[in-house]
UniProtKB/TrEMBL annotation:
InterPro entries (alphabetical): EXPERA (IPR033118), Sigma-2_receptor-like (IPR051987), Sigma2_recept (IPR016964)
Keywords, ordered alphabetically: Endoplasmic reticulum, Membrane, Transmembrane, Transmembrane helix
The keyword Membrane appears for this protein: yes
Membrane-topology annotation of the record: Multi-pass membrane protein
Protein known as: EXPERA domain-containing protein
Record carries keyword Iron-sulfur: no
Pfam families, per database record: EBP
Family: Belongs to the TMEM97/sigma-2 receptor family.
Organism: Purpureocillium takamizusanense
Any GO CC annotation of this UniProt entry: endoplasmic reticulum membrane
Intracellular or extracellular location(s): Endoplasmic reticulum membrane
Location, primary (coarse class): endoplasmic reticulum
PANTHER family assigned to the protein according to its UniProt record, in alphabetical order: SIGMA INTRACELLULAR RECEPTOR 2
Amino acid sequence: MTCMWTDTLFAMSSKYRRDWAYLAIISIQLLGMIFLDLVAFYPKALYAGSSAPLHFLISIRRRYIRATSDPFFSASPAASPHSPWLQAFLYVELLVQLPLAVYLVWRLSSLWRRTTPFVELAAVVFCCLTFMGSVACCAELWSMSFLKLSAKKKSSLFYGTYLPFVIIPAIMGIDMYTRLALRFQRAEAVINKGKRQ
């Protein structure tokens, strides 16, 4: 039992600590996608009726809207269509970010494995897409009329909800890109050393 506990601690310490933070961040984003962002893509029968199996998602959505007044969401996922730019980002989120998030959560949750080049590349792509979508939302919020959204709510959404998903993915993407670049530099150095011998 003691040996197993020691092995687990060793495995956890051999993994980058920041990878655990990245796992938490991406997990939060994944839950946000599943519970808020992508509900409109689910078959209506799954969430529309009060007896539908995923109707609780509508309750979560309503609570979120009540708390934040987020103009990018409506109480019913199918009630009002999004702006074309936001709809395009939602399709990117569904087709690219969601699979990447699932992959990254699966790989980063491993106790014994450090990141691989594939994980780092997936993280860079995921971070770039999250950054771009969040920048677009921030720009829209910044230019939004106070008639549509109060100054207090606007500030809260801008600084508390969307701006962190600009800054954090930028930092995470740069970190993963740096790791990937270092891997390629090391591999190139090994190849060059082999050629010289």
